Amino acid sequence: MKNVKAKLSLIVLMFLSGSLVLKSQTLKLWYKTPAEYFINALPVGNGRLAAMVYGRPAEELIHLNEETLWSGGPVNLNPNPESPQYLAPLRKALDENNYELAEQLSMKMQGYFTESYSPLGDLLIHQKFEGEVSNYYRDLNLESAISTTRFSAGGVDYTREVFVSYPDQVIVVHLTSSVKGKLNFSAGVKTLLPAMLKNEDSEIVLNGRAPSHADPTYTKTSEMPVQYGDACKGMRFQLRVKVLHNDGKTLVYNGGIEVQSASDVTLVLSAATSFNGYDKCPVSDGRDEKTLAKNYLEKLGNKPYEEIKNDHIKDFSGYFTRLKFNLASDPESGKLPTDERLQKYQSAKSDHQLEVLLYQYGRYLLISSSRPGGIAANLQGKWSVDVRPPWSCNFTTNINVEMNYWAAEKTGLGDMAEPLIQQVVNMSKTGTEMAKNLYNMPGWAAGHNSDIWATVNPVGNAGSPGFNPQWSNWIMAGPWLCQNVWDKYAYDGDKQFLKTTAYPVMKGAAEFCLAWLVDDGKGHLITSPTTSPENRFIGEDGKAWAVSKGATDDLALIRNLFENVIDASKELDIDQDFRSKIMEAKNKILPYQIGKKGNLQEWMRDYDDSEPQHRHISHLICLHPGHDISANATPELFNACKKTLEIRGDGGTGWSRVWKVAMWARLLDGNHAYKLLQSDLEYTNERGFSETGGTYTNLFNACPPFQIDGNYGIVEGISEMLLQSHLKEIYLLPALPDVWRNGSISGLKARGGYDVSMNWENGKLTSALMYCKNSGKCNVRTNLPIKIKGVKLKTEVQQSPNGKTYLNSFTVKSNTQYEIIGG
Ligand code: FUC
After folding, report:
1. Of the candidates 244, 241, 242, the residue with the CA atom closest to the CA atom of residue 266
2. Looking at residue 112, what DSSP letter applies?
3. Strand 776-782 and strand 730-732: pairing?
4. Considering only CA atoms, which of 68, 74, 75 is closest in space to residue 457?
5. Please, where are the H alpha helices in 681-796?
6. Phi, psi for 8 (deg, rounded to 5)
7. Which of 29, 119, 440, 780 could form a disulfide with 338 if both were Cys (CB 3.0 to 4.6 A apart)?
8. Helix (H, G, I), strand (E, B) or coil at 305
């Protein structure tokens, strides 16, 4: 496989198309000024630890996070014992179109809000130097995952390198001066959480506690929205800072470190919490965070800086370089600092390398925020500074956390999705209790918010007072998350994983759905109650309501889950009886319907939307990331999805625009997908709440405020423009926009165990290499006739929105590489 990638990257990447040049640029974000706000600072991380570097010469600020530091403790698994009694009257109210009563009863079936991701603290470095600052530069190199700050003052050149090492599990800050003895600074830490600072030998040590509860910002469930001091909840943490190397003098005093007359200094930071699993009290049954934090530093010993750095680069770049992507672009573009480059992009849109940078940044952020054995990437990855961050910085399951991981497998980062799988496994356990306690149902169910404690109940205040069911009462996170779980198997074919992890979780979700479905009175199965994430319809009474029966998104998700469960049980050759039940139910699910506007209906009835351009587009899950709708198999529904997207428009929050990139790619309209990609790259500095989307100068995605789903999600959108494999065929360049005339990509994965590399010129596939892990039948769809070296192809010509397409079938051998020639 290595050979495949090596061969493609050797293919000469220099050819001209107009003034656009296909030449790879160094993948880095760089600036001529320090960061003013969080949205200008640069993120580094190793999954568990994260840091945001501002690069300020005299007053350096680095925000710190540790992934397990959350408020709260294990969830109450029976938060609302009254809940089950309301299900029958709620269903009756819906049968009678009494939406008002239905909403009131829905509110009586809620539990409590999730907890919040807590910030660890800040590292502050007060650096003393003579004279004015000149030659200022800071960057973030995506391949080495190091943020560098450089400046000169008083005839001395100063540098700082910051990274978070996975092999050594520490945050590293390396400072130098070009003249001996000219490096002088003091370093200290601070935190927003209650903590005690002390020094222990030559280290400064911060011992603190997370809140036992932190309300979301949008509500206050008591007079004390942030609480401390519970005997079970509110985990402990420890942060340690140590001068590892110093060629000058070190003074350590209570609360600070002073470095004098040095020229080469390495600071290392270690942190740990008492988190001991989603179901254990982090206080009374917590881990020993002090020993953990200390051990990381002891293990590091006196390791030389260059060795720490080299081990870090080797580890990080090993993942990052699995995929290479290049587009012919304005050759001058990389010469501008990233903030100016983003500004220039607003008018001159030929900087396709900025689009490549955004794509690779999404991969960079995933490797930096999600490592096997750790916690899943939350709404801000792992970079957060508030005790009550936006939307609790939790796992929002009605789109956001799924989007975080959509592109993991296909861009060679399948290993990084393990924390999400573990989160789903945990939720399947709390969800089993919740299905029983809230609905008196088998299997497991989960609502639209979760956290490190695997909260799954519809959020609120356990029914009194109730919260708007429009967003609170959606409980389809089980089937939704099971798509991510199934995808892992679909890509790598790991039967052991399917048997021991994926299938039990998927089966549990399917058991709940099977019990939850009801007959619509005409022989079809529907859900009741239902909501279509977070939209409302205009009822027969002319008023806007959220709760109804049979929303399309529920049915699409359940259908998809059932299909995957059927496939999985066949692959494993188990559970024939259960499979038959699921097959029977699947066939009875209310079919997709086309509404009066030619759109795909969002609800069972052809209601009008209260907000026709609502940011959520969950009924199109069947188009993306699902697989029910396609140009060739379901052309009418395909056109209805298109109509829906046209009515929804191209605006919305960051994640909404990014999802639409993927959806337009699935509609095989590369130019429209590209239009949305451009709108995703709209410059913004909006830090408050709005629905305008866009990208900040540090290329973080804006909901606004900052929300990282758009960064991970754009990787999915662009990947889907270049390769699709959800229809049991591999479609090469299905939605290439006209402006991406020349380009190449290597290391993309397709479902079924394929590794694909492609080159295109003048908008047409010229060559591709396909490495197949498994033997079997392979279908490759292209927009032009192809040949495969040494293979006799069976080709069917089909009409599609792209004009003629060619469906090429052939038999592949395992562990074999195939060379495709286009044109
Ligand atoms: C959903 C969205 C919001 C935001 C929040 C975290 O509720 O509707 O736009 O993304 O999640």
Report:
1. 244
2. B
3. parallel
4. 75
5. 709-722
6. -65, -40
7. 29
8. helix
**Residues 6+ positions from 573 with CB-CB distance below 8 Å:** none
Kindly report, residue by residue over 554-590, the tens digit of the pLDDT. Answer: 999 999 999 999 999 999 999 999 999 999 999 999 9
Q: How far apart (Å, rounded) are the C-alpha atoms in residues 502 and 568? A: 9
> What's residue 131's pLDDT?
97
pLDDT of 18: 46
Structure tokens of 434?
């919740």
Half-sphere exposure of 615 (CA within 13 A, CB side): 18
Instruction: Decide: 400 and 484 in contact? Cβ < 8 Å.
Output: no
Measured N-to-C along each axis, helices 87-95 and 99-107 cross at an angle, to the nearest 10 degrees, of 160
Is the CB of 702 inside a 6 Å radius of any atom of ligand 1?
no
Residue 13's pLDDT is 39
Sign of the C-alpha dihedral, residues 289, 290, 292, 293? positive
List strand residue ranges (DSSP E) for 131-235, in order: 134-141, 146-153, 156-165, 170-177, 183-190, 195-200, 203-209, 213-214, 226-227
Q: To test the ligand 1 pocket, which listed residue (451, 473, 653) has its Cβ within 8 A of the most ligand atoms? A: 653
For residue 409 the two structure tokens come to 């497998």
Name residues of the chain where pLDDT drops below 50: 1-18
| Each residue's pLDDT tens digit, 69-94 | 999 999 999 999 999 999 999 999 99
Contact 246, 262 (CB under 8 A): yes
Q: Are 364 and 320 in contact (CB under 8 A)?
A: yes
Q: What is the DSSP letter of 71?
A: S
pLDDT of residue 619: 98
Q: Please answer whether residues 20 and 738 qualify as being in contact, where contact means their C-beta atoms are separated by less than 8 angstroms.
A: no
C-alpha 476/C-alpha 218 separation (Å) is 23
- State in Å: Cα 413 to ligand 1 middle: 25
Q: What pLDDT shows up at residue 19? A: 66
467: amino acid identity, one letter: F
What Cα–Cα distance (Å) separates residue 684 from each residue in 29, 39, 280, 680, 704? Answer: 17, 10, 42, 10, 9
- Pocket-testing residue among 113, 380, 468, 534, ligand 1, by greatest number of atoms within 8 A of Cβ: 534
Kindly state if the Cβ of 703 falls inside 6 Å of ligand 1. Answer: yes
What is the per-residue DSSP string for 510-540?
HHHHHHH-EE-SSS-EE-SSB--TT--EE-T
